[in-house]
């Protein structure tokens, strides 16, 4: 028997409001795991929220989806354009909840996200991934993503 279909369901404003503190807490923790101090991570979180969610409301053009596996909520995908031109899009956040991992959900969500971005005029899709997230890096490589820049750090 095959896995149920993965689909992207746009989030309502109420869903975005509930999602935002959860997603930003994940982002802040990921930055700490990647080497930021707690203060740096908190500042990056605030900057992201101010840029994309001023007053708690998403900026026009930023698309947030619930990732569904059949009729179950399996995670989220946030994509949107960078800048005014609208052809360069970013995967800002992809999360697959623990019980749904290692089942191809992230791969299928990314492919669906590419289709959404293309339908909105995107000609390229970018993303950032923290170096410790080797599983995500491997997935993105198999989907055709190539390094565009590499930031390196050394603890002193």
UniProtKB/TrEMBL annotation:
It comes from the Bacteria. InterPro entries: Acyl_CoA_acyltransferase (IPR016181), GNAT_dom (IPR000182), YpeA/RimI_acetyltransf (IPR050680). PROSITE patterns: GNAT. Pfam families: Acetyltransf_1. The keyword Metal-binding does not apply. Keywords: Acyltransferase, Transferase. This is GNAT family N-acetyltransferase. It comes from Agromyces indicus.
């Amino acid at each position: 028997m095959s896995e149920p279909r993965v689909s992207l369901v746009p989030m309502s404003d109420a869903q975005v409001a509930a999602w935002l503190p959860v997603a930003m807490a994940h982002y802040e923790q990921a930055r700490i795991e990647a080497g930021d101090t707690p203060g740096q991570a908190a500042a990056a979180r605030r900057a992201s929220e101010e840029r994309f969610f001023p007053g708690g409301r998403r900026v026009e053009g930023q698309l947030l989806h619930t990732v569904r596996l059949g009729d179950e909520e399996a995670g989220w995908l946030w994509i949107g354009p960078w800048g005014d031109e609208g052809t360069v899009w970013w995967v800002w956040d992809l999360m697959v909840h623990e019980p749904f991992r290692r089942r191809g959900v992230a791969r299928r969500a990314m492919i669906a996200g590419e289709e959404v971005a293309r339908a909105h005029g995107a000609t390229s899709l970018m993303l950032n991934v923290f170096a410790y997230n080797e599983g995500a890096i491997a997935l993105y490589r198999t989907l055709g993503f190539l390094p565009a820049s590499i930031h390196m750090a050394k603890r002193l």
